[in-house]
């Protein structure tokens, strides 16, 4: 039933305008969905499907029977390796954070082109090359010991290649540039007036860094720490080439289960455990960001 055109104040074109606006909104939504559809498809094919498949395989036998045996085997054989992985990752994140803050703070206050270029160098070196180079550099009779004995006349140090210390050194060397790039960008984006006001009131640069720069850039620092954690825990090449034979990181255990035992169930169970570790960090990160924006209280 139509609306009488003789009603007081009624514009007969108003209904058409409303319908036109509604059609425009639907068209915009459709176009927007079509634009992101390729990205969603790639995400579904390359991430979501493998994730679901990995979880399913971790709970089944080769015959397709539901089981928890794979997880039992993981905790029987690899619990120490899981804890070792968390230990190495946590130390790497901590040391990387300290070094990144030092470099970023120095470059925020002083211009040094050499350092500004050199700290980024590891960004362009593949993990495979890094692992091979560090294995030679940290070996018992490697480059490091050769330099110490010839230049300083010191006795040779125990080889750090094949130890957890050498593994941490390598991880820190690789991860620091990426973390520094994020933190330094956040430091440089700060308004100079905050820093100048604090210095004019007598604050030292250390207090400015601790009480102003770090608190104001906490979201960016958190991003750097999360990405460092994820890149470290998911690395395979560096632990394989530089780390000890035992204990191993989770990624190395997964590789051995597949390559030597064709045991996809246990390998996927290890993968699911690493997913859960990263998921826990992701939940904490989201709560932190919501608290920073005035939402949930951390």
Q: Please, could you describe this protein's structure?
A:
With 298 residues, this protein is mainly alpha-helical. The chain folds into 2 domains: 22-58, no CATH class; 73-292, MetI-like (MetI-like fold), CATH 1.10.3720.10. 74% of the residues lie in helices and 0% in strands. It has helices spanning 14-58, 69-77, 79-109, 113-118, 127-137, 143-151, 164-189, 192-200, 205-216, 218-233, 237-242, 250-261, 264-292. Helix 7 runs antiparallel to helix 10 (218-233), helix 8 (192-200) runs antiparallel to helix 9 and helix 10 packs antiparallel against helix 13. The termini are far apart.
Can you lay out the helices and strands and say which pair or pack?
Elements: H1 14-58, H2 69-77, H3 79-109, H4 113-118, H5 127-137, H6 143-151, H7 164-189, H8 192-200, H9 205-216, H10 218-233, H11 237-242, H12 250-261, H13 264-292
CATH architecture of the largest domain: Orthogonal Bundle
Helix content bin: over 70%
Q: Identify the overall geometry.
A: flat
CATH class of the largest domain: Mainly Alpha
Number of helices: 13
Question: What is the oligomer described by this structure?
Answer: single chain
CATH superfamily of the largest domain: MetI-like
Q: How many strand elements?
A: 0
SS content category? mainly alpha
Radius of gyration using CA atoms only: 27 Å
Order of helices and strands: HHHHHHHHHHHHH
- Measured between the Cα atoms of the first and last residue, the distance is 56 Å
Mean pLDDT: 86
Number of domain modules: 2
Major sheet summary line: none
Q: Which percent band covers the strand fraction?
A: under 5%
CATH topology of the largest domain: MetI-like fold
């Amino acid at each position: 039933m139509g609306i009488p055109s003789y009603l007081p104040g009624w514009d007969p074109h108003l209904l058409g305008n409303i319908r036109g606006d509604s059609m425009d909104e639907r068209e915009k939504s459709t176009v927007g969905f079509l634009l992101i559809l390729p990205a969603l498809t790639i995400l579904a094919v390359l991430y979501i499907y493998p994730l679901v498949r990995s979880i399913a395989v971790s709970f089944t036998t080769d015959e397709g029977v539901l089981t928890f045996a794979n997880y039992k085997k993981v905790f029987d054989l690899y619990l120490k390796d899981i804890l070792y992985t968390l230990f190495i990752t946590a130390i790497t994140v901590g040391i990387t954070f300290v070094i990144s803050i030092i470099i970023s703070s120095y470059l925020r206050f002083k211009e040094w082109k050499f350092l500004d270029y050199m700290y980024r160098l590891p960004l362009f070196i593949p993990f495979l090359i890094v692992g091979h180079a560090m294995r030679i550099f940290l070996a018992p009779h490697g480059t490091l010991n050769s330099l110490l004995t010839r230049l300083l006349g010191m006795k040779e140090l125990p080889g750090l290649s094949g130890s957890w210390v050498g593994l941490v050194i390598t991880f820190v060397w690789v991860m620091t540039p990426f973390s520094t790039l994020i933190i330094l960008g956040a430091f440089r984006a700060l308004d100079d007036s905050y820093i100048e006001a604090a210095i004019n009131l007598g604050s030292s640069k250390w207090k400015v860094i601790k009480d102003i720069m770090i608190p104001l850039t906490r979201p960016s620092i958190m991003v750097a720490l999360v990405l460092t954690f994820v890149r470290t825990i998911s690395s395979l090449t560096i632990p394989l080439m530089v780390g000890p034979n035992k204990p191993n990181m989770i990624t190395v255990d997964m590789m051995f289960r597949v390559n030597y035992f064709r045991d996809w169930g246990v390998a996927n169970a290890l993968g699911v455990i690493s997913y859960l570790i990263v998921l826990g960090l992701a939940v904490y990160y989201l709560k932190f960001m919501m608290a920073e924006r005035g939402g949930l209280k951390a």
